[in-house]
Protein backbone atom coordinates (compact mmCIF):
# COMPACT_ATOMS: atom_id res chain seq x y z
CA UNK A 1 0.00 0.00 0.00
CA UNK A 2 2.79 2.42 0.94
CA UNK A 3 4.62 1.64 -2.30
CA UNK A 4 1.52 2.22 -4.46
CA UNK A 5 0.46 5.41 -2.65
CA UNK A 6 3.89 6.91 -1.89
CA UNK A 7 3.65 10.66 -1.29
CA UNK A 8 -0.16 10.70 -1.45
CA UNK A 9 -0.67 10.71 2.34
CA UNK A 10 -2.73 7.49 2.38
CA UNK A 11 -2.92 5.85 5.81
CA UNK A 12 -4.58 2.74 7.25
CA UNK A 13 -8.13 3.18 8.52
CA UNK A 14 -9.45 1.51 11.65
CA UNK A 15 -12.92 1.27 10.09
CA UNK A 16 -12.58 -1.68 7.67
CA UNK A 17 -16.18 -1.20 6.45
CA UNK A 18 -14.97 1.78 4.37
CA UNK A 19 -13.47 -0.75 1.93
CA UNK A 20 -16.75 -2.63 1.41
CA UNK A 21 -18.96 -2.36 -1.65
CA UNK A 22 -21.76 -0.92 0.52
CA UNK A 23 -19.50 2.12 1.08
CA UNK A 24 -18.78 2.57 -2.64
CA UNK A 25 -15.70 0.38 -3.08
CA UNK A 26 -15.28 -1.25 -6.50
CA UNK A 27 -13.73 -4.39 -4.92
CA UNK A 28 -11.05 -4.55 -7.64
CA UNK A 29 -8.67 -7.14 -6.27
CA UNK A 30 -6.00 -8.94 -8.26
CA UNK A 31 -5.62 -12.51 -7.07
CA UNK A 32 -3.19 -15.26 -7.99
CA UNK A 33 -4.22 -18.88 -8.54
CA UNK A 34 -2.38 -20.24 -5.48
CA UNK A 35 -4.31 -23.21 -4.08
CA UNK A 36 -4.74 -22.52 -0.36
CA UNK A 37 -8.47 -23.05 0.33
CA UNK A 38 -10.35 -21.08 2.97
CA UNK A 39 -13.98 -21.24 4.08
CA UNK A 40 -16.27 -18.20 4.09
CA UNK A 41 -19.19 -17.55 6.44
CA UNK A 42 -21.45 -18.12 3.41
CA UNK A 43 -20.51 -21.82 3.62
CA UNK A 44 -18.46 -21.70 0.41
CA UNK A 45 -14.84 -22.71 -0.17
CA UNK A 46 -12.60 -20.15 -1.91
CA UNK A 47 -9.38 -21.00 -3.75
CA UNK A 48 -7.31 -18.72 -1.48
CA UNK A 49 -7.66 -15.90 1.02
CA UNK A 50 -7.38 -13.17 -1.63
CA UNK A 51 -10.36 -14.57 -3.53
CA UNK A 52 -12.36 -14.70 -0.31
CA UNK A 53 -11.36 -11.05 0.25
CA UNK A 54 -13.12 -10.11 -3.02
CA UNK A 55 -16.38 -11.52 -1.62
CA UNK A 56 -15.71 -9.95 1.79
CA UNK A 57 -15.56 -6.61 -0.03
CA UNK A 58 -18.50 -7.34 -2.35
CA UNK A 59 -20.94 -9.00 0.05
CA UNK A 60 -19.63 -8.23 3.54
CA UNK A 61 -19.20 -11.93 4.44
CA UNK A 62 -16.18 -13.02 6.51
CA UNK A 63 -13.61 -15.78 7.02
CA UNK A 64 -15.14 -18.76 8.83
CA UNK A 65 -11.96 -20.86 9.13
CA UNK A 66 -8.85 -21.82 7.17
CA UNK A 67 -9.12 -24.92 5.01
CA UNK A 68 -12.06 -26.03 2.84
CA UNK A 69 -15.63 -25.89 4.18
CA UNK A 70 -16.86 -29.15 5.65
CA UNK A 71 -20.47 -28.91 4.57
CA UNK A 72 -21.50 -32.19 6.15
CA UNK A 73 -23.32 -31.30 9.38
CA UNK A 74 -20.73 -31.69 12.15
CA UNK A 75 -23.13 -34.00 14.04
CA UNK A 76 -23.24 -36.41 11.10
CA UNK A 77 -19.49 -36.76 10.60
CA UNK A 78 -18.12 -40.26 10.15
CA UNK A 79 -15.59 -40.69 12.95
CA UNK A 80 -12.96 -43.45 13.14
CA UNK A 81 -12.99 -45.83 16.10
CA UNK A 82 -9.21 -46.27 16.26
CA UNK A 83 -6.20 -45.42 14.10
CA UNK A 84 -4.10 -48.61 14.32
CA UNK A 85 -4.42 -49.47 10.61
CA UNK A 86 -4.74 -45.87 9.33
CA UNK A 87 -1.97 -44.37 7.15
CA UNK A 88 0.60 -42.32 9.07
CA UNK A 89 0.36 -39.19 6.98
CA UNK A 90 1.28 -36.73 9.72
CA UNK A 91 2.05 -34.35 11.13
CA UNK A 92 -1.26 -32.80 10.05
CA UNK A 93 -2.26 -29.17 10.69
CA UNK A 94 -5.98 -28.92 11.51
CA UNK A 95 -8.28 -25.96 10.90
CA UNK A 96 -8.54 -25.66 14.71
CA UNK A 97 -4.82 -24.71 14.87
CA UNK A 98 -3.72 -28.03 16.42
CA UNK A 99 -1.15 -30.47 15.02
CA UNK A 100 -2.11 -34.17 14.88
CA UNK A 101 -0.11 -37.39 14.28
CA UNK A 102 -2.28 -38.24 11.25
CA UNK A 103 -5.56 -37.36 9.52
CA UNK A 104 -7.17 -40.29 11.34
CA UNK A 105 -6.05 -38.98 14.77
CA UNK A 106 -7.39 -35.54 13.84
CA UNK A 107 -10.83 -37.01 13.02
CA UNK A 108 -10.79 -39.25 16.10
CA UNK A 109 -9.90 -36.49 18.59
CA UNK A 110 -12.19 -33.82 17.11
CA UNK A 111 -15.18 -35.99 16.21
CA UNK A 112 -18.25 -33.84 15.49
CA UNK A 113 -16.33 -30.54 15.28
CA UNK A 114 -15.86 -30.38 11.50
CA UNK A 115 -12.06 -30.00 11.70
CA UNK A 116 -10.40 -30.28 8.26
CA UNK A 117 -6.80 -30.61 7.12
CA UNK A 118 -5.14 -27.29 6.19
CA UNK A 119 -1.85 -25.94 4.90
CA UNK A 120 1.03 -26.63 7.32
CA UNK A 121 1.82 -22.90 7.54
CA UNK A 122 -1.27 -22.34 9.75
CA UNK A 123 0.07 -24.34 12.74
CA UNK A 124 2.95 -23.36 14.98
CA UNK A 125 5.06 -26.53 14.96
CA UNK A 126 4.52 -27.30 11.24
CA UNK A 127 5.03 -23.76 9.92
CA UNK A 128 8.66 -24.43 8.92
CA UNK A 129 8.32 -28.05 7.77
CA UNK A 130 9.00 -27.55 4.09
CA UNK A 131 11.13 -24.47 4.36
CA UNK A 132 14.15 -24.40 2.07
CA UNK A 133 17.01 -23.22 4.26
CA UNK A 134 19.90 -21.00 3.18
CA UNK A 135 23.37 -22.35 3.76
CA UNK A 136 23.78 -20.01 6.65
CA UNK A 137 26.59 -21.36 8.82
CA UNK A 138 25.44 -20.04 12.19
CA UNK A 139 25.20 -23.15 14.38
CA UNK A 140 22.15 -23.34 16.64
CA UNK A 141 21.62 -25.44 19.75
CA UNK A 142 18.15 -26.97 19.97
CA UNK A 143 16.18 -27.63 23.15
CA UNK A 144 16.58 -31.33 22.29
CA UNK A 145 20.33 -31.00 22.99
CA UNK A 146 21.41 -31.31 19.34
CA UNK A 147 23.48 -28.85 17.32
CA UNK A 148 22.06 -27.81 13.93
CA UNK A 149 23.69 -25.96 11.02
CA UNK A 150 21.25 -23.07 11.62
CA UNK A 151 17.85 -22.28 13.20
CA UNK A 152 15.94 -22.90 9.97
CA UNK A 153 17.38 -26.43 9.66
CA UNK A 154 16.51 -27.09 13.31
CA UNK A 155 12.83 -26.20 12.75
CA UNK A 156 12.42 -27.99 9.42
CA UNK A 157 13.99 -31.21 10.78
CA UNK A 158 11.65 -31.22 13.80
CA UNK A 159 8.40 -30.90 11.86
CA UNK A 160 5.47 -31.18 14.29
CA UNK A 161 7.66 -31.05 17.41
CA UNK A 162 8.25 -28.24 19.89
CA UNK A 163 12.00 -27.63 19.51
CA UNK A 164 13.41 -24.13 20.07
CA UNK A 165 16.80 -22.44 20.15
CA UNK A 166 18.72 -22.25 23.45
CA UNK A 167 22.25 -21.02 24.32
CA UNK A 168 25.04 -23.14 22.84
CA UNK A 169 26.22 -23.97 26.38
CA UNK A 170 23.56 -26.71 26.57
CA UNK A 171 25.03 -28.46 23.54
CA UNK A 172 28.63 -27.69 24.48
CA UNK A 173 29.46 -31.32 25.14
CA UNK A 174 28.80 -32.09 21.46
CA UNK A 175 30.30 -28.89 20.05
CA UNK A 176 34.05 -28.64 19.56
CA UNK A 177 34.96 -24.98 19.63
CA UNK A 178 38.02 -23.99 17.61
CA UNK A 179 39.36 -22.02 20.56
CA UNK A 180 39.07 -24.88 23.01
CA UNK A 181 37.41 -22.64 25.60
CA UNK A 182 34.48 -23.99 27.58
CA UNK A 183 31.06 -22.34 27.45
CA UNK A 184 29.52 -20.84 30.59
CA UNK A 185 26.29 -22.67 31.47
CA UNK A 186 24.63 -19.67 33.12
CA UNK A 187 25.26 -16.10 34.25
CA UNK A 188 22.81 -15.69 37.14
CA UNK A 189 25.54 -15.23 39.74
CA UNK A 190 27.46 -12.70 37.58
CA UNK A 191 27.08 -9.00 38.49
CA UNK A 192 25.36 -6.92 35.82
CA UNK A 193 27.98 -4.88 33.98
CA UNK A 194 26.97 -3.74 30.45
CA UNK A 195 29.59 -4.98 27.99
CA UNK A 196 30.12 -3.98 24.36
CA UNK A 197 30.99 -6.83 22.00
CA UNK A 198 33.07 -6.63 18.83
CA UNK A 199 29.85 -7.57 16.95
CA UNK A 200 28.31 -4.23 18.01
CA UNK A 201 25.84 -5.75 20.48
CA UNK A 202 25.46 -4.76 24.16
CA UNK A 203 25.44 -7.62 26.70
CA UNK A 204 24.52 -7.60 30.39
CA UNK A 205 27.94 -8.93 31.34
CA UNK A 206 31.07 -10.46 29.81
CA UNK A 207 29.72 -13.86 30.87
CA UNK A 208 26.56 -13.30 28.80
CA UNK A 209 28.71 -12.28 25.81
CA UNK A 210 30.49 -15.66 26.02
CA UNK A 211 27.24 -17.57 26.67
CA UNK A 212 25.47 -16.20 23.58
CA UNK A 213 28.44 -16.47 21.21
CA UNK A 214 29.80 -19.79 22.31
CA UNK A 215 30.22 -22.14 19.35
CA UNK A 216 29.81 -19.48 16.66
CA UNK A 217 32.36 -19.41 13.85
CA UNK A 218 33.42 -15.82 14.45
CA UNK A 219 34.97 -14.89 17.73
CA UNK A 220 33.27 -12.05 19.62
CA UNK A 221 35.35 -10.22 22.21
CA UNK A 222 34.86 -7.34 24.61
CA UNK A 223 35.66 -3.88 23.14
CA UNK A 224 35.50 -0.29 24.34
CA UNK A 225 31.94 0.62 25.42
CA UNK A 226 31.94 3.81 23.34
CA UNK A 227 31.70 1.70 20.18
CA UNK A 228 28.16 0.65 21.21
CA UNK A 229 26.80 4.12 22.12
CA UNK A 230 24.91 4.49 18.82
CA UNK A 231 23.16 1.13 19.25
CA UNK A 232 22.22 1.99 22.84
CA UNK A 233 20.69 5.32 21.74
CA UNK A 234 18.72 3.53 18.99
CA UNK A 235 17.44 0.76 21.26
CA UNK A 236 16.41 3.03 24.12
CA UNK A 237 13.81 4.54 21.78
CA UNK A 238 11.80 1.31 22.29
CA UNK A 239 9.44 2.08 25.18
CA UNK A 240 7.79 -0.92 26.82
CA UNK A 241 5.06 -1.44 29.38
CA UNK A 242 5.30 -4.00 32.18
CA UNK A 243 2.06 -5.77 31.24
CA UNK A 244 2.74 -9.45 32.00
CA UNK A 245 2.52 -11.86 29.05
CA UNK A 246 5.84 -13.71 29.38
CA UNK A 247 7.89 -14.92 26.43
CA UNK A 248 11.13 -16.87 26.37
CA UNK A 249 14.18 -15.66 24.43
CA UNK A 250 16.92 -17.72 22.78
CA UNK A 251 19.18 -16.73 25.70
CA UNK A 252 16.99 -18.96 27.96
CA UNK A 253 15.76 -15.86 29.83
CA UNK A 254 12.08 -15.05 30.42
CA UNK A 255 10.97 -11.56 29.34
CA UNK A 256 7.89 -9.83 30.78
CA UNK A 257 6.31 -9.38 27.34
CA UNK A 258 7.10 -9.37 23.62
CA UNK A 259 8.14 -5.70 23.69
CA UNK A 260 10.79 -6.36 26.37
CA UNK A 261 12.12 -9.19 24.18
CA UNK A 262 12.18 -6.81 21.18
CA UNK A 263 14.40 -4.52 23.25
CA UNK A 264 16.76 -7.44 23.96
CA UNK A 265 16.75 -8.29 20.23
CA UNK A 266 17.83 -4.75 19.47
CA UNK A 267 20.54 -4.71 22.16
CA UNK A 268 22.09 -8.17 21.76
CA UNK A 269 20.36 -10.04 18.92
CA UNK A 270 18.34 -12.37 21.16
CA UNK A 271 15.46 -13.95 19.21
CA UNK A 272 12.02 -15.28 20.19
CA UNK A 273 12.09 -18.93 21.37
CA UNK A 274 8.49 -19.57 22.50
CA UNK A 275 5.58 -18.05 24.43
CA UNK A 276 5.49 -18.54 28.20
CA UNK A 277 8.24 -18.79 30.79
CA UNK A 278 11.52 -20.49 29.93
CA UNK A 279 11.73 -24.02 31.30
CA UNK A 280 14.62 -25.87 32.90
CA UNK A 281 16.41 -27.66 30.09
CA UNK A 282 17.64 -30.46 32.30
CA UNK A 283 16.16 -32.39 35.27
CA UNK A 284 13.05 -33.60 33.46
CA UNK A 285 9.96 -34.52 35.47
CA UNK A 286 8.57 -38.01 34.74
CA UNK A 287 5.69 -37.85 32.24
CA UNK A 288 2.20 -39.03 33.29
CA UNK A 289 1.05 -42.23 31.58
CA UNK A 290 -2.65 -41.95 32.41
CA UNK A 291 -4.96 -38.90 32.60
CA UNK A 292 -8.33 -40.65 32.99
CA UNK A 293 -8.85 -39.27 36.51
CA UNK A 294 -8.28 -35.65 35.45
CA UNK A 295 -11.29 -33.50 36.34
CA UNK A 296 -10.15 -30.20 34.79
CA UNK A 297 -13.01 -28.87 32.67
CA UNK A 298 -11.05 -25.91 31.25
CA UNK A 299 -8.88 -26.67 28.20
CA UNK A 300 -5.18 -25.79 28.35
CA UNK A 301 -3.14 -23.87 25.76
CA UNK A 302 0.41 -25.19 25.29
CA UNK A 303 3.52 -23.25 24.29
CA UNK A 304 3.56 -25.42 21.12
CA UNK A 305 0.32 -23.73 19.97
CA UNK A 306 -1.85 -26.80 20.62
CA UNK A 307 -4.89 -27.07 22.91
CA UNK A 308 -5.11 -29.99 25.39
CA UNK A 309 -7.93 -31.28 27.61
CA UNK A 310 -5.90 -30.68 30.78
CA UNK A 311 -2.35 -30.00 31.98
CA UNK A 312 -1.93 -33.76 32.50
CA UNK A 313 -2.82 -34.42 28.84
CA UNK A 314 -0.37 -31.70 27.79
CA UNK A 315 2.50 -33.38 29.69
CA UNK A 316 1.56 -36.84 28.47
CA UNK A 317 1.23 -35.92 24.77
CA UNK A 318 4.39 -33.78 24.64
CA UNK A 319 6.68 -35.83 26.87
CA UNK A 320 10.29 -34.62 26.58
CA UNK A 321 9.45 -31.57 24.43
CA UNK A 322 9.48 -28.95 27.24
CA UNK A 323 5.95 -27.74 26.42
CA UNK A 324 4.37 -25.63 29.16
CA UNK A 325 0.94 -24.16 29.85
CA UNK A 326 0.56 -20.57 28.57
CA UNK A 327 -2.29 -17.99 28.67
CA UNK A 328 -5.36 -19.10 26.69
CA UNK A 329 -5.23 -16.27 24.16
CA UNK A 330 -2.14 -17.81 22.51
CA UNK A 331 -4.11 -20.75 20.97
CA UNK A 332 -6.70 -20.51 18.20
CA UNK A 333 -9.69 -22.28 19.80
CA UNK A 334 -9.09 -20.76 23.26
CA UNK A 335 -8.26 -17.20 22.13
CA UNK A 336 -11.67 -15.80 23.18
CA UNK A 337 -12.30 -17.98 26.24
CA UNK A 338 -11.93 -15.08 28.67
CA UNK A 339 -12.96 -12.28 26.33
CA UNK A 340 -15.46 -9.63 27.39
CA UNK A 341 -17.87 -9.77 24.45
CA UNK A 342 -19.76 -6.70 23.28
CA UNK A 343 -23.52 -6.69 23.79
CA UNK A 344 -24.26 -5.94 20.13
CA UNK A 345 -26.80 -8.28 18.54
CA UNK A 346 -25.04 -9.45 15.40
CA UNK A 347 -26.61 -12.93 15.38
CA UNK A 348 -24.58 -15.81 13.91
CA UNK A 349 -25.31 -19.48 13.30
CA UNK A 350 -22.65 -21.80 14.75
CA UNK A 351 -21.51 -25.09 13.18
CA UNK A 352 -23.26 -26.77 16.15
CA UNK A 353 -26.57 -25.48 14.65
CA UNK A 354 -27.18 -23.03 17.52
CA UNK A 355 -27.80 -19.28 17.16
CA UNK A 356 -25.51 -16.95 19.16
CA UNK A 357 -25.76 -13.23 19.87
CA UNK A 358 -22.42 -12.61 18.07
CA UNK A 359 -19.29 -14.48 16.97
CA UNK A 360 -17.35 -13.58 20.12
CA UNK A 361 -20.12 -15.06 22.30
CA UNK A 362 -20.09 -18.24 20.18
CA UNK A 363 -16.33 -18.76 20.58
CA UNK A 364 -16.32 -17.91 24.30
CA UNK A 365 -19.16 -20.37 24.99
CA UNK A 366 -17.35 -23.14 23.07
CA UNK A 367 -13.92 -22.62 24.64
CA UNK A 368 -11.44 -25.15 23.22
CA UNK A 369 -13.80 -26.43 20.50
CA UNK A 370 -13.69 -25.80 16.76
CA UNK A 371 -17.03 -24.03 16.33
CA UNK A 372 -17.26 -21.67 13.36
CA UNK A 373 -19.83 -19.49 11.59
CA UNK A 374 -22.07 -21.18 8.97
CA UNK A 375 -24.93 -19.68 6.90
CA UNK A 376 -27.92 -18.69 9.02
CA UNK A 377 -30.26 -20.85 6.90
CA UNK A 378 -28.82 -23.96 8.61
CA UNK A 379 -30.02 -22.79 12.03
CA UNK A 380 -33.45 -21.66 10.86
CA UNK A 381 -34.21 -24.68 8.68
CA UNK A 382 -36.59 -26.00 11.36
CA UNK A 383 -38.35 -22.67 12.04
CA UNK A 384 -41.97 -22.23 10.95
CA UNK A 385 -42.78 -18.83 9.43
CA UNK A 386 -46.20 -17.27 8.90
CA UNK A 387 -47.14 -15.35 5.78
CA UNK A 388 -44.24 -13.53 4.11
CA UNK A 389 -42.03 -13.30 7.21
CA UNK A 390 -38.57 -14.86 6.81
CA UNK A 391 -34.98 -14.47 7.98
CA UNK A 392 -32.77 -12.75 5.40
CA UNK A 393 -28.96 -12.80 5.37
CA UNK A 394 -27.31 -9.47 6.22
CA UNK A 395 -24.83 -9.39 3.33
CA UNK A 396 -25.00 -6.49 0.86
CA UNK A 397 -25.59 -7.54 -2.76
CA UNK A 398 -28.04 -4.84 -3.93
CA UNK A 399 -30.85 -5.44 -6.40
CA UNK A 400 -33.31 -2.98 -7.90
CA UNK A 401 -37.02 -3.79 -7.88
CA UNK A 402 -39.64 -2.80 -10.43
CA UNK A 403 -40.92 -0.35 -7.78
CA UNK A 404 -37.59 1.52 -8.27
CA UNK A 405 -36.52 0.69 -4.71
CA UNK A 406 -33.07 -0.73 -3.92
CA UNK A 407 -33.04 -3.85 -1.71
CA UNK A 408 -29.95 -5.02 0.22
CA UNK A 409 -30.14 -8.43 -1.43
CA UNK A 410 -32.57 -10.60 -3.41
CA UNK A 411 -34.02 -12.11 -0.20
CA UNK A 412 -35.52 -8.76 0.87
CA UNK A 413 -36.89 -8.28 -2.65
CA UNK A 414 -38.57 -11.71 -2.48
CA UNK A 415 -40.16 -10.75 0.85
CA UNK A 416 -41.53 -7.56 -0.65
CA UNK A 417 -42.74 -9.47 -3.73
CA UNK A 418 -44.64 -11.84 -1.40
CA UNK A 419 -46.20 -8.96 0.55
CA UNK A 420 -47.28 -7.10 -2.61
CA UNK A 421 -48.65 -10.33 -4.17
CA UNK A 422 -46.02 -10.41 -6.97
CA UNK A 423 -46.39 -6.74 -7.92
CA UNK A 424 -42.64 -6.17 -7.31
CA UNK A 425 -40.09 -8.15 -9.33
CA UNK A 426 -36.38 -7.91 -10.09
CA UNK A 427 -35.58 -5.06 -12.46
CA UNK A 428 -31.77 -5.43 -12.51
CA UNK A 429 -28.75 -6.26 -10.34
CA UNK A 430 -27.04 -3.42 -8.49
CA UNK A 431 -28.65 -0.32 -7.01
CA UNK A 432 -31.38 1.49 -8.92
CA UNK A 433 -28.94 4.39 -9.47
CA UNK A 434 -26.05 2.15 -10.61
CA UNK A 435 -27.16 -0.95 -12.54
CA UNK A 436 -24.67 -3.84 -12.69
CA UNK A 437 -24.71 -5.85 -15.89
CA UNK A 438 -21.80 -8.18 -15.22
CA UNK A 439 -22.38 -11.45 -13.40
CA UNK A 440 -20.19 -11.66 -10.25
CA UNK A 441 -16.96 -13.58 -10.83
CA UNK A 442 -16.81 -17.06 -9.38
CA UNK A 443 -13.95 -17.46 -6.95
CA UNK A 444 -15.15 -20.76 -5.58
CA UNK A 445 -12.76 -23.69 -5.39
UniProtKB/TrEMBL annotation:
PROSITE patterns: KAZAL_2. SUPFAM superfamilies: Kazal-type serine protease inhibitors. The keyword Ion transport does not apply. The keyword Disulfide bond applies. It comes from Acanthoscelides obtectus (Bean weevil). Keywords: Disulfide bond. This is Kazal-like domain-containing protein. GO terms for cellular component: extracellular region. It comes from the Eukaryota. Residues 21-71, 73-125, 177-228, 229-280, 281-335, 336-381, 382-434 form the Kazal-like domain. One of its GO terms (biological process) is cell differentiation.
